[in-house]
Amino acid sequence: MVNLALYWAERYQSIHPEIRISVTGGGSGTGISSLINNTVDLANASRKIKPEEIAKANKNGVEPIEYVVARDAIAVIVHPDNPIDKLTLQEISDIYTGKISNWSELGGENRPIVRLSRETNSGTHVYFLEEVIRLGNSDDKTIFSANTLLLPSSEGIIAEVRENPNAIGYDGLGYVTDEVKVLAIAKKTGGDYIFPTLQTVNDNLYAISRNLFIYANGTPKTFVKEYLDWMLSSDGQKIVEELGFIPVR
Amino acid sequence: MIAKRTNFFEKIITLMIQLSGFSSILFVLLILFFLLGEGSPALFDIPISELFSDRWYPIEGYYGILPLILGSLVVTLGASLVAVPFGILTAVFIAEIAPKWLQEIMKPLVELLAGLPSVVLGFLGILVVSPFLRDTFNLPTGLTALTGSLLLGGIAIPTIVSISEDALNNVPDTYRHGSLALGLTRWQTIWGVTVPAAKSGILMAVMLGVGRTIGETMTVMMVTGNAPILPTSFNALFMPIRTMTATIASEMGEVATNSPHYHVLFFIGIVLFLFTLAVNIVASNISARKIKRAERILS
């Protein structure tokens, strides 16, 4: 999400040269604890603030106000000729941890599964690890199977999935082209299989999607408010779309 | 007066030449110290048994660099198997067999090949070589060590051809004439006289070529799949691997300075440095010995 924050800051400063915005990375936890310590105006976070964090903030006289500024959805993709067109989260997790290694185990053709992933430095990689492979369980220490291919770019994943009928990959919804097949995903065995679209993501039906938040201390005023309004305006949301995230409006 | 001035300029020029000569030593030493300074803390951050274990997943604290070292070795070995015979034979053909007009076309073409950016070769690998290998050998994926080896071979060949060919051209014609006059065939002359006489130059060519393949990053990152699988058998050539260079390139950008991960990446740099050092030492030893033997034959 730091990319999005940097882009916003950069673009906003080029329109308003009198404003100086400095963006620091380090993860959602860093942002929220800076807000609690009242050292920042706005904290970006790709997870919801925890109740104990709110309590801590209130003790410091900080009142966090939440804004959903963008959404992020990850599509799971396969080759168009692959007969599989839906999977559950558990099945995807089993594929990536190495428990399932042939498509026939999922009712597909007798082909080995080639697992594709982004490199470990990608936020998408970490999100996929936490929410899909570990199914959101933070005590789970399962990791990717060692023979998962780590490709340096989203385009690399699309290219390999497009060419290789054995492959499965994941990518931000914004990067997916129609030369690959997007799978419908069910949160639980027996649940509804949902395709990722702007609609299902915004309605919170699609399993691998999350809100991206900004927390402010109290209702923002003056230039902070203007900046926040700009992020949520069509100009700001266009940047969201450019970076492969889902705009909120 | 004039003589004095010449003397003065000569001194400056000598000094400058000396300086540039020493600077290369200085730079190598500075780089070495920098690498050691940033990389050696890894030995204190991480127990050595863990550092040389077989699982690389740094964001969860798995720092086993063994798959990366072996991955680099597999790709380099594969590339040498492609590039060395192919490169030397091409050089022999250009220098000894091809007619003059063909030589004049081939030499610049080979040199043009050397100027191909590695990222372009990477594209070629993803779009052409990898699907081709997958279909031909019926592999699960075409992003394998073999794909990397073939493309790296392509990168090393121009270096090997160009330098070997120069070495062959430097063999005096009297050698060839003498050999032919003794009744040897052209083939026997090439393998028995010309190539052995140019051996040190050819070895240098091979070493420079191999050196390029160890250090090459962009192409391998694009086509080898980057899966840190420990290569255990010959089959590893047909499976994805992860090299040391690709690991440094893809992870250095996001790593927190002075974290264990950061130190380990520099430690990998040290290992890489030692590899190229070893290649160079072997090369200089072999070529020194060969010169002695050649001198013995000639005397």
Describe the structure.
Chain A is built from nine helices and nine strands. With 249 residues, chain A is an alpha/beta fold. In chain A, strands 1, 2, 4, 5, 6, 7 and 9 form a seven-stranded mixed sheet that branches. In chain A, α5 (123-133) links the parallel β4 (114-118) and β5 (149-151). Chain B is mainly alpha-helical. In chain B, strands 1-2 form a two-stranded antiparallel sheet. Chain B starts with a helix and ends with a helix. The relative contact order of chain B is 0.14. The model of chain B has no long low-confidence stretch (mean pLDDT 88).
Short description:
With 249 residues, chain A is α/β, with parallel strands linked by helices. Chain A has helices spanning 2-15, 28-36, 51-59, 89-97, 123-133, 154-163, 198-202, 222-232, 234-242, and strands at residues 42-45, 64-78, 86-88, 114-118, 149-151, 167-172, 181-182, 184-186, 209-217.
Strand-and-helix sequence of chain B, N→C?
Answer: HHHEEHHHHHHHHHH
Spatial arrangement of strands, main beta sheet of chain B: 1-2
Query: Distance between termini of chain A?
Result: 18 Å
Name the helicity range of chain B. over 70%
- What does the radius of gyration of chain A come to? 20 Å
**Can you tell me the residue ranges of chain A where pLDDT is under 50 for at least 5 consecutive residues?**
none
Provide the structure class of chain A. Answer: alpha/beta
Largest interface chains and counts:
A-B, 25 and 32 residues
Please compute the radius of gyration of chain B using only Cα atoms.
Answer: 23 Å
The mean pLDDT of chain A is 88
Largest sheet descriptor of chain B: 2 strands, antiparallel
Q: Let me know the largest β-sheet of chain A.
A: 7 strands, mixed
Strand content of chain B: under 5%
Number of helices of chain B: 13
Topology, pairings included?
The complex is a heterodimer of chains A (249) and B (299).
Chain A: H1 2-15, H2 28-36, E1 42-45, H3 51-59, E2 64-78, E3 86-88, H4 89-97, E4 114-118, H5 123-133, E5 149-151, H6 154-163, E6 167-172, E7 181-182, E8 184-186, H7 198-202, E9 209-217, H8 222-232, H9 234-242
Parallel strand pairs in A: 3-8, 4-5, 4-6
Antiparallel strand pairs in A: 1-9, 2-6, 2-7, 2-9
Helix pairs in contact in A: 2-3
Chain B: H1 2-39, H2 41-45, H3 48-51, E1 56-57, E2 62-63, H4 66-97, H5 100-114, H6 118-137, H7 145-169, H8 173-181, H9 186-197, H10 199-215, H11 218-223, H12 244-252, H13 260-298
Antiparallel strand pairs in B: 1-2
Helix pairs in contact in B: 1-13, 4-7, 4-10, 5-7, 6-7, 7-10, 8-9, 10-13, 12-13
